[in-house]
Amino acid sequence: MPKATEPKRTALFISHATPEDNHFVRWLGAKLTAMGYEVWADVMCLHGGTDWAYELETALKTRAFKVLLVCTPGGLEKRGVRNEIEMATNLARQLEDDSFIIPLRLETYDAIFRIAHAQYIDFKRSWAAGLAELTELLRDQGVPRGSTGPLESWLESHSDGSDRLLQRSEPLVSNWLQVEGQPRNIRYIESRVGASLERFQNRLLHDWPVVPFRSGVITFAQPDEAGNLANELPGKEVAALSTAEFLTGGWEELKIAPLEARRMYANLGSQAFDRFCRKRGLTGHLGSGQRVSWFGDIKTTPQGRVKFEWPYRRGSRQVIGQSGKRNVHWHFGVNAQLRTSPIAHFRLSARLVFSENGLDAIEDKKRSHSLRRSFAKGWRNARWRDMLCAYLWWMAEGKASIWMPVGAEAYIQVAVPPMQFGCPVTITEGKEANQADDDDDPDIPDDLPDEEQSEEPDQ
Amino acid sequence: MIHSHRPQIVYIDEPKLEFRYGQQLEYARDGLYLYGPVDAEAFPRQIRYGFIGTKAGLARFERWATQVSSFISTPPPRKGAKEKEPHHVPFPGFSEAFNALWSNKPAKVIDDLDEEDLKRQLHIANRHEAIKSVVDAYVDRLVADKRRDEDPPAFWYVVIPEFIYELGRPQSVVPRAERVEGRVAISQRDAQKLSKQPNLFGFDEEDAQVYKYERNFRRQLKARLLDDHIVTQLVRESTLTPGDFLKSNGDLKRRVEDPATIAWKLCTGSYYKGGGRPWQIASMRPGVCYVGLVYKKQNDTETARYSVCAAQMFLSDGEGVVFRGALGPWFHPDTKQFHLDAEAAARLVGTVLDEYKRRHGGEPTELFIHAKSSFNDDEWAGFQAACAGTSTNVVGIQISDAWDQLKLFRQGSYPVIRGTALVTNNKSGYLFTSGFVPRLGTYMGPDTPNPLHVCIRRGDAPLETVMRDVLALSKINFNTCLFNDRSPVTIRFADAIGDILVAAPLSKEPMLPFKFYI
């Protein structure tokens, strides 16, 4: 026992080899701290410098009540540990405490001269059993305990390499294109008496988006001077309503409920997008979920990087490319759905389409699925974000909006780039990924749980 | 121009979990490594488990059980990866992580399952018969032991050979040349007819029963052990000792996770199934209760409308109880949604309130009902009726997958941060429960993160509170020890539980903790 329990000597000092025994010391030190002991150990300081070494030495000299010496053959060879043993031995003499040094046997070691007489606590057989024995000893030896001390350093050291959340806002770009403008009115056009209604309601025969309704169509378009809504499709405007009213309250006169009205509007919007893409030379590919993705082929779309430079969004990416390894062409494609809530916007879903010849999509669903899975496995944030922007830049021909015709002189106008939102937090990020096109993003763990494991909770 | 409120982004702080010594941390593996489980007491908990499998399986299991009784380091850094991969946490050893007594020898061993017998049974051409007879082999032994043993183990490790995994699923195909004749002569179609017109064909009714069991080894096994209250932990031999299963070129046949990760997952599950509570949500409001609603169509029902409704009551301390609601015409083909009628809804919430009272001595102050689908007027009237006269505020929340509906891309290379939410109005928004996690230094998912759509359909509660709860409930899957799941436990286990409830005919309507189902 120490001669005089000086009040300031309250700490447990763990002497150990760094980094070899860090895992053990964190496991032990965190618990001792949580139990109310004051603990000092080299591992607590993550970014050690000269100050830390000095602080640690001072702590040993002036604060240590006991020294826990982690014993492994390699550790006891280390100069730092040897120095600490030397200091501790001198202190033990000064304090007249024979059990000032408590060896913790982590592995079998050859006892060195200074500690040869000290009785060790065995952690080799089991850390848990060792801890039980140690806590008993600490209690018996009257090591001072206070309330739980500061624990952050254990977690910090334990989770070394983690990123930090910063309370600083950053812009996030979405996949939503805000609708900036659309025709003031929506119309109900009936087919002329005597003409084929079936033809009139066949949207393939129309020049503009239409939705079949009763004996005509709902559309933004109007019949031309000759009374034709499209070639050889004579029609008569029966009623018109403000688009805004249509979307909020439906069309009472025609008994169209609000929900139905919004569905029709979404339908007109999808048609407008599809027609626009076709006109732009893109190809539609019917994928899973019965959605058409519009992609560019090697004849219509630039094959190199597409540069985009809106005021707040700049960069460059390929939107089509070739994988030599897999011997396929890949094409960035997009499907769009018009939605009214919470604000009118087109929702874009991105898909990769693959082709053998740079033109025609591979129809084999199984093969394109597995290509998608393996080829885009490493693609995360930056890649998809910039492909979307590059695609939209090319589509909008560098302008700030895309105008989709829905009638003669009538457009649905959407803003590009997609809507951005301010996020109140961000993270520290080592370096920007500015890598070659076929590289992976940097942050992909190799060991993602596979699907089958996530489906079935047992292993 | 169209005028409307522009949505806003909010960030919801990562909920913390509570561990031993009252310590609160974000990541379960940190909390267990540094401090231990929340329910730890001075005397370590004894984990008593049994083993059932083949002799070869037992040898493999014991090698693994020995491996997890001491420190397992993180895997070496991969080529091209970051120098430090903070999502990896070494496993300190079972006793070291859980303050528990772990033995590398099972308390009880059943290893008389013969590999050749099982193989032959699994190759029976009639898949229903094949899988049922293999499950029989396990169930018979486990049930017999349960009835014989006065001090049965808390749970059983069911260690399955690879061929059971491969041939024990509905989509498994046995090559024609390898099929063996079975005993059941009646076809599935005839069995269905027989159920309407008994003895029409003179077939054995017992044979026809085989079609009531699902062709899924795992689900059927769990379902058939419910009556006898037997908890299991299924694991493939190749998960325990992947090095035993090599291709001819020396590579692993099956790519599994690193040993420390597997140890975290299986051992956390074992601690939980052994009766422990590894962690709980920290600083939870008192008096909160969650219910996850599940609907599953039963295979052998005659009309498409009939389905089983199951509910899971979930408390913030991680305790969960599963109720099995009765079979009913809950599916509405016109809307493609499931809804209870008012009476069944009231009965269900009534049971939840009773159970809560029994455990806590009073009514919950808040009762959140989580469902994938919306709630209709009848259903809601039933929920409210059950809460009438109590001080319980009942809130109906729809939590649906918003796959592709909203993407948010960050400036840098890392994906959107978990906890980011786009609030569209005071009742709904998109919540990214998966995304970049600063603690892990990565995003543990495929592609770009997709949000959940969280919508307060009925009743009243602050949206941010609802979202914070959803985030917290995504962190208490005791079967994985991951940082988080994408779905809250109310919804996630909903499906798993429903799948098991319909996998075999049940004689009772058991009310059991959810460890029986996962």
From TrEMBL, chain A:
Superkingdom of the source species: Bacteria
Gene3D superfamilies listed in its UniProt record: Toll/interleukin-1 receptor homology (TIR) domain
Pfam families associated with the record: TIR_2
Bias-annotated ranges (Acidic residues): 435-459
GO terms, biological process: signal transduction
Boundaries of every TIR domain copy: 8-142
Region Disordered, annotated ranges: 428-459
Listed name of the protein: TIR domain-containing protein
Organism, as annotated: Rhodoferax fermentans
TrEMBL record, chain B:
CDD domains associated with the record: Piwi_piwi-like_ProArk (cd04659)
Annotated SUPFAM superfamilies: Ribonuclease H-like
A GO molecular function held by the record: nucleic acid binding
Domain of life: Bacteria
Protein name (database record): Piwi domain-containing protein
